[in-house]
Amino acid sequence: MRKTTKILLLTAALAACAAAAVLASGAPLTSHPVAPAALGQPSSSSELEAVIDRPGRMRVETIVAADWEVPLDGLLNLEHPRAQAAGLQDRSEKIQIYFHVLRHPTQGTFIVDSGVERAVKSAPERSAIRGVVARFMQLDAMQVHTDTASWLATLKAPLQGVLLTHLHLDHVSGMPDIPKGTPIYAGPGETQERDLLHFAVRPTIDRALAGHAPIQEWRFVADPDGRLPAVVDVFGDRELFAISVPGHTRGSTAFVARTTEGAVLMTGDASHTDWGWQHGVEPGSYSRDRSASARSLASLKALAERHPHMRILLGHQPLAGTPPPSKQAKG
């Protein structure tokens, strides 16, 4: 065999190995740029808990963007001993898509997560979520109540920011309706978590985020008290706290707001369901790291137990015994 041919074969083999290594490691969730957050300062669980039982100045409203159904296996770890003892099996589970409206007396209006894009129903062929991904997600079965564009039309002042609990499609699907230039915040490493599935969903997430400013990553540092993974005081006035809750995704984030009616915990997908929260069972196959997910859920549960008057807003279902969220947009 000629030397040139051997070199070409060796080069091809090395290229194939490199390609296989890239494929095996998966793709990042999105190619959208990131930057350090200009908002927020590192805090601690002790600083949070020193004020959590005192009413604050904020107001929180939860909007039901849509009703939907997904497999229970993704929402709950059905292999958990408590799930098995309860005889839970995979089935279609009713859930809701939420976004939470946060109103601060001086900082303005923010939302946690982004709701559902208007085009999902009005022009599905132009929606960020379309084609094979839309069919796989069975978006045709989603019942939209308040799309993000319709809610934005009720605002009397510009939206000041979007605080994403994480970047899964059901949490960023409303981003095409968000005005370009609106600041966007998420947990560190959220965009760069690698998975084979991301080869399929990354183009969709990139479309949802297209034209927006870089995602600003919270400047989390380890909680010096060790009760929570990490805490950021979002406005520096102890009214809103971001809490790192890795597991469902690398950068998953929960929030605690001190409202005029008391503290409100927004878990994000650290806990999807009422049953999962009540029984301390972490999410299932939708989570990247179930062990970390279980630890994050346990830390939020412990926080709630230390502060039993705090209202709990779960990722995709209302907590039993609490007022149902609104399906109507309010100004």
Q: What is the overall silhouette?
A: globular
Reading the helices and strands in chain order gives: HEEEHEHHEEHHEHEHEEHEEEEEHHE
Largest sheet: 8 strands, mixed
Average of the residue pLDDT scores: 92
Model regions low in confidence, pLDDT < 50 over at least 5 residues: 8-24
Q: Proportion of β residues?
A: 15-25%
Rg over CA atoms, rounded to whole Å, is: 21 Å
Range of helix content:
25-40%
Strand order across the largest sheet: 2-11-9-8-6-5-4-7
Q: Count the helices. How many?
A: 11
Structural class: alpha/beta
Number of strands: 16
Termini, distance in Å? 76 Å
Highlighted features:
8-stranded mixed beta sheet, alpha/beta, 331 residues
Q: In a few lines, what is going on in this structure?
A:
The chain has 331 residues and is an alpha/beta fold. It is 28% helix and 23% strand. The chain is built from eleven helices and 16 strands.
